[in-house]
Predict the 3D structure of the following.
Amino acid sequence: MSRISRVWVEIVMELKGLRIYRLQLIINLLILPLSYALIALLVGGMAQTDLSYLLSGLIVSSFIGSFVGLLAMRISNFTQPQTMELYAAMPVTTGEVFSGLAITYLLLALPQIIVLLGLSIWQAETPRVGLAILGVLISSGAFVSLGVFLGALVRNPFKAQGVFPLVSWGLMLLSPIYYNNQHLPAFYSALLLVNPATHALNVIRPFLGFKSVMDIRYSFLYLGLFILVTAFASYYILRRRMHLLEKFF
Amino acid sequence: MRQLFDLTPISLQFSITGVTMKPVIEVRELTKVYPNGFKANDCLSLSALEGQIVGFVGPNGAGKTTLIRQLLGLLRPTEGKVRVLGRDPMKEANTLRGMVGYVPQMPLYYPALTVGETLGFVLRFKGVRGRELVRRRREALAQVGLEHLVNHSGYQLSHGSMRLLLLAIAICQDPRVLILDEPTSMIDIVSRARIHRLLAKERSNKCILLASHDMNEVRTLCDRIYVIASGRFIAEGTPQEISALVKLPVEIAFVPAVPSGVEELLRTKNISFEKEGPVFHVAFNDLPQGIEFINDAQRSTGLNYLHLEAPSLERAVLQLLQEAKHE
């Protein structure tokens, strides 16, 4: 059986396994993010461009919530001894499970991202739809890769519950998701450029008519390299360090 | 290590009745030290052939599960060599996944998947589809006796049923190697007997490793037993050989049909005894003496009840472990 087929079976299995968390997922991945968007749309007196700015920020914020929050936690859960032992009883490899989980959570986040991107484009003055979609795709890839890396790295579930919200908070705070960086001090503006969320915004917002924080090509390059580095680091952890009970706590 | 026969160097191939067989599982001088300095396995060597059931017995924390996890590539050995089907589990764990069936010690399960779905996914991972999938799933469920729970979700299962499901997961893959870590703990006696029959049947074309605390299970199923304590093998052999390693008294408890003449008989033969109500307890140095006494007692007074504790595997293993502890 091919690797792709096994990844597909893993996706189906994960989705079926998530049945018992259905309500939690609908609320966290659909109702809550879209309710923020609805509030932004209902608030009167806001310029259309401001709305588009906020909604595009909400897309990146959704990436962070879905992938650095949920996906990273699921991957971390997979690295627990009990889960690894359970999967050791199955004819599927760890790499296939990781790939399946990443795609599953991407699929779960897709509806809210499509809706938010649609609203952003609707509210934007001069949208370039194709490039905006490309920006969303590469950004989602970067955060999926980051989620997998963090999940593989933080194998202590108790630490993970503290580390992942902290990383999410850092990514949100140090990026112009909900504020404009044009009037920030130079040092702070430079600091934002370390953050993948800033580059994710920089490959989406300019195509919705906003001024870019730096050359868009560099942001695409940054995100491409970020995906490669985090994917390689995850692969390294998977190959070299993914062993049970080795310095677990 | 105490043993009754010479160990064939594991690097060599085995020759049984003229047919040369390569070990399916080969472990040489395997040592595992955890990062905190705890040595869980200390220079272990073993080999297992196709058609064999090899048992590990030892107290909790002796190193059985650590050894098994290294065979599966879930733990990295500190020193030594491990080969399963000629492959290094650390380098080729993915290749071995489909060839090695594993029943973990802990009762693990997928909470939201039903028993039928879980087995269905296992088979789909193997590329089995359609009618073949349905047939193999039904067969595996019947083999472990879980047909009636096919639509139950993982979280609804008892610990015993979870273990049966794990066994079904392993069996339905038809692997060449089965590694079972206490597969019958928490399982009722009917299911246990069914599993014993199943393993006896499966052994013909498989190599089975069985870690167990159930001496009866090990005695009836295993061709060879390794007794492990503090990470080391302290004895190895067939169940009979292990039993014979330690000299233990033969204990007999009996209730005579005619109680009046028994004490007379025992005193005449100068046999010391204890009496608890109608039950007499006597002990002999070896089995022939015990059998001779039983024959005498049957002839002279008749017997209403008899319990003979010959040197048992359980007592022998216990004795070996106690000796190892004192050393």
Observations:
- Residues 103 and 180 of chain B are 5 Å apart (CA to CA).
- Chain B touches chain A through 35 residues (CB under 8 Å).
